[in-house]
Write a structure and sequence with these properties.
Helix content is 60%, strand content 0%. The protein has helices spanning 7-30, 34-53.
Length: 73
Amino acid sequence: MADIVNLKDFRKARTRAEAEAKAAENRARFGRTKMDRLRQSQEENRARREHDGNKVERDAEDAKPDESSDDRR
């Protein structure tokens, strides 16, 4: 014989499991110490500065000539 399952209890158990999973995710996301948040912020700023520092700036003579400044008249 199959076990009789109360659907109300099954739904409640599923809801509890989902709530616990969400709580665990929130603890991982927001449950950090101030030093952890500060360290991550500093790492992000360092990476941003490093990325910006590696950008190549083009000189005016290297840029494509503007069509409006064409002297073909």
